Amino acid sequence: MTVTLTDLLPTELRRSWVVDGTCPDLDLYSLYRARQIADLHRTAVIDAKGELCYTALDRKVRCLAKGLRGLGIGAGDVVGVQLPNSRNAVMAELALAALGAIALPFPVGRGAVEAESLLRRAEAVAVVAAVEHRGQTHAADLQALAPALPALRHVVAAGRDVPDGTIPLTRLLRTDPAGFVPARPDPDGAARILVSSGSEAEPKMVAYSHNALAGGRGNFLASLMPDDTPPRCLFLVPLASAFGSNGTAVTLARHGGTLVLLDHFTPEAALSAVRDHRPTHILGVPTMIRMMLETLETLETLESTDEPLPVPTALVLGGAPLDETTAKAAAEAFGCPVVNLYGSADGVNCHTGLQHTVPPTDRSGVVAGRPDPRVAEIRITDPDTHEPLPDGRIGEIVSRGPMTPLCYVGSPELDARYRTPEGWVRTGDLGFLDEDGLLHVAGRLKDVVIRGGANISPAEVERELVSHPQVRDAVCVSVPDPLMGERLAACLVVKGPTAPSLAELGVYLAERGIDRYKHPEHLLVLPELPLTAAGKSDRAALRTRIAEDRTSALAQA
């Protein structure tokens, strides 16, 4: 093994979830192989190239696994994967599982500096990357980084005209799979490293076992399946994101379902995929759904066609706070329950389930739902003493359960900061459990704007702004200020031809009960919000844009 990954959960606790059947106690490739044998010709993947069945995918996986083994890649090795949503990304993850290696997927669009940090800290021995995707040349960029990464031995390039020094993925896929014998890694051993877009200077990397993915995360999706019918999941988020880890390992290996994949999200492509492929589950972030709703309105799709959108089982929204306005509009447009998912790469998961068409709300917005011990048990603790708090008291949300990761990768300081001696994960989120056991999220310990000593929660203001009749989407960020320290800026996508002014927004927020000191003092109107590679609103890019606008305004004054 190239990097030490220690399970911070007590061994007897981890094994208890195998004994009671909560976790399958099989590695991901063995689970996938069993699904393939059970239904040879079921469709596994639908992407830009068309449909690929379980048996055809398995042959490609075995070819790739044997080709990678020929490069010297084996059990315990970390291999980076930077590919768009496609069959290649699925093949890579399953092939690495078949070798007992550890996949480190990260989304296309993340630059060379961040990629270098991830590969260096994980001591990756190889990386599989796209030759070109939307103008970016990831394979060439990573090959240029290789001299600075002593552990990195190979760059495998997916696409045409591969850069010098890289290994064509097509060559590995032509390997004869005859005689390939899969590894049988420990199901409690590392299978995948999830990359978090959290608040640290460098992205956090979190190691997950086969059981945590197929068991804990698999139980999450199972709770959203009303029967045993294999799910058909449209992933609007990258498979290489934490949210996207519910793809290959969960949808395919655990549940024998079908992945519907877009190599790049646009609202038009997403709506076409819903119509053409009739997914049972649509997984995305609220901003994506708001963009799809706006496209539906603009094209007047529901009114101009005799054929409405096919009705999914669930619209599963996570990655960012969900507001009631979006939830209601989405439930009406898609005709199915909207599920609010509270979760993170760090090992927390909770959702509102299928029993509500529109998830319930409280004074803080949409509730997080009822914790499922087959996924992750949740407690509320004092942020300073870490002692459990009674129901109704706001404290830090901590989590521990079958989906709890092993540890942070190459970051013992993060293990010390965010994991307790008993294995609980400290989320850094504030919330409370009510008398009925429902989790309510109140905000972040760190995510506050401090204006003249007064704390402002951006999420609180955002929830109200998106309910404004002229606002389609909103993100609030801090801007530095020499007098107050920080002030709040609102970044809006508006409905219709005109945007509300700051004064008008202030009146509206006051009517909604938001204190004056929490009102935005800067306004940025955009045609759409920028998204990170993981599909979330890019707050750093918005701060930069606001700073540029303020500098330009001062220069013209």
Provide an overview of this structure.
By secondary structure, this protein is of the alpha/beta class. The protein has 3 domains: 28-39 and 52-185, Rossmann fold (3-Layer(aba) Sandwich); 232-301 and 308-444, Rossmann fold, CATH 3.40.50.12780; 456-556, ANL, C-terminal domain (GMP Synthetase, Chain A, domain 3), CATH 3.30.300.30. Helices cover 32% and strands 24% of the residues. Strand 14 and strand 15 form a beta hairpin. The longest helix has 18 residues, at 539-556. The radius of gyration is 23 Å and the shape is globular. The protein starts with 10 loop residues before the first helix and ends with a helix. Residues 460-536 form the AMP-binding enzyme C-terminal domain. One of its GO terms (molecular function) is acid-thiol ligase activity.
